[in-house]
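User: Structure please.
Assistant: Input sequence and predicted structure:
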Amino acid sequence: MNQMTPSLPTCGLLNIDKPSGMSSRAVVNRMERAAGKIKVGHAGTLDPLASGVLVLCVGPATRLIDYVQRMPKAYRATFLLGQSSPSDDVESECVSIVAAPRPTREEIEQATKPFLGDIEQRPPAFSAIKIKGQRAYKLARRGDEVEMPLRRVRIDAFDVVEYEYPKLVVDIACGSGTYVRSLGRDLAVSLGSGAVMSELVRTAIGSFTVEAASNLEEVWPESFPKHLLPPLQALESLPQLRLDDLQIEEVRHGRLVDCNLAVDEVAAVDSEGRLIAIMIPRDTGKFGPKHNFIR
């Protein structure tokens, strides 16, 4: 190996199939123990009720959390029509709606169409969004009136998979920041009813799929390295810039290298395809490191 080959710390991604009933924070804590106390962070919380893809960033890869969070997401959600709850799911007390209509599958499929594309959505009061510096769910749990602001989200697919009243199963593809609970609630309201979410599986974040995810029970200190994915997988949307050894030395010291790509960011890699840095324009025809992953 060339003496100029960069030294890269333990850095990578974990695609974990989070089990229902466990918080995302609990998964992070467990993986930190498996990683030998190396810093671990999750790229997008899943509620305890939900299961499926939870991408964790390990070591310096925690600087890639924002990139993973921006990736498109896919879910399979189950709703119970004709009910409502303060949290829009079965985690809080559910109330049956008197004389709720029983829409047909065709009516439901037709009702999903206005939700496609960029829409305004009101998140549930029982959410981690901060209102005046406090988590909304904390305010809601103590009985405060919580007015959640509308937010713009993108829905790319909203497909009915299974329907037998009151149970409705849908597949959803969406952008970052979407609350699936709210989507089911608003769909039901548009049909003159209500809905609570009873199950949720995140089936994908970008190229991270639930089929390829590691079972939590399989990840221990001894097996941890084999579950670690290359950090470059978090940057699939960025063009790559291959650096030679001399350029890597320049980047190591925070200096600029030649790059004539007309882009805002590039993923700089070495000859083995390992992530060296995320680089941005610093001068005409020159890029410098925004995030450095070499010692």
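The chain is about 20% helix and 35% strand.
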